[in-house]
Amino acid sequence: MEYVEAHRAAIEQRLAETVAAVEPSELSDELEHVVLAGGKRVRPTLTVLVCEAAGGDSEDAMGFAVGIELVHNASLVVDDIIDQSALRRGKASAWAAFDHGPALVASNGLLGEAFALFSRDPRAMECVTDALVELGEGEAIELVDRPETEEEYMELARRKTGALFRAAAELGAVAADADGRSVEALGEYAERVGVAFQIRDDVLDATAASEDLGKPAGIDEELDRPSIVRVTDRSPAELNALAERESERAMEALDSLDLPAGEAYDYLEYLAEFVVSREA
């Protein structure tokens, strides 16, 4: 979709400008290594296109879009340290490239730059802080409580992945000055997309090759980490169907708003389908 790619290119440029302006240069280099290594840019694209779908101008959401991508990358740095994963997006992860101390500093730097972008709007700050609380609780659940049932795992997925997707959509709605009902419905849509994304991610970790994923495959089994594959006796096909049901419920939340047709809405519909069919 040329329309979406134009938005992604704008996000990529703004990301590059943001991390290039960081001082000192050593920290800037580390942030560039993390942020500019690639990635689908799903969350920031979601932010700008939700803004458009809700009647706003995508440029008004660009700062929030960059911020949510910085938050996401900060969380990946920590994930890779916890997992001792040396590969991220086909390149050395932050700790593998710079060691653990500088990687943690880079994660903190990413969060600092992100919150500088959110600070102009109290509603944006609330969206992101709520998401970070959920994310932190999700990480703790994964490491300590270790969910053992499908229900417990779905709550983990909501917190660990769904929360940042929700924040990304809510930020777009806030940028469009949408009403509370619209912010909530768009947040629910994105949260369910995020849960579907995580289920599919777990299936791919168990079934795909490392070279296709751009990161080590089989890491859940190797690290004895909870995943939907490991806490249920369902087949990959059944788990994909579970992800598809979350995608359908996401679309129900989106359709409850009766948003106008257009390229932004088309992307939101496409995203709900893409997260359950992707191969990497």
Overall 3D shape: globular
Strand content is under 5%
Helix content: over 70%
The secondary structure category is mainly alpha
> What's the arrangement of strands in the largest beta sheet?
1-2
Order of helices and strands: HHHHEEHHHHHHHHHH
Low-confidence stretches: none
Please name the fourth-level CATH homologous superfamily.
Farnesyl Diphosphate Synthase
Return the CATH architecture: Orthogonal Bundle
What's the level 1 CATH class? Answer: Mainly Alpha
- Largest sheet, strands/sense/barrel: 2 strands, antiparallel
Give the number of DSSP strands: 2
CATH topology: Farnesyl Diphosphate Synthase
Mean pLDDT across residues: 92
Radius of gyration: 18 Å
Keywords: Isoprene biosynthesis, Magnesium, Metal-binding, Transferase
EC number: 2.5.1.10, 2.5.1.29
Pfam families: polyprenyl_synt
Family: Belongs to the FPP/GGPP synthase family.
Question: What's a quick, concise take on this entry?
Answer:
The chain is an all-alpha fold.
Secondary structure: elements and pairs:
Elements: H1 2-20, H2 25-35, H3 42-53, H4 62-83, E1 87-88, E2 91-92, H5 94-98, H6 100-118, H7 122-145, H8 150-175, H9 180-207, H10 210-213, H11 219-222, H12 228-231, H13 236-255, H14 263-274
Helix pairs in contact: 1-2, 1-3, 1-4, 2-6, 3-4, 3-8, 3-14, 4-6, 4-8, 7-8, 8-9, 9-13, 13-14
Please describe what this structure looks like:
By secondary structure, the protein is mainly α. The protein has a single domain, classed as Farnesyl Diphosphate Synthase, CATH 1.10.600.10. Helices cover 75% and strands 1% of the residues. The protein has a two-stranded antiparallel ribbon with strand order 1-2. Helix 1 crosses helix 4 and helix 9 runs antiparallel to helix 13. The longest helix has 28 residues. Belongs to the FPP/GGPP synthase family.
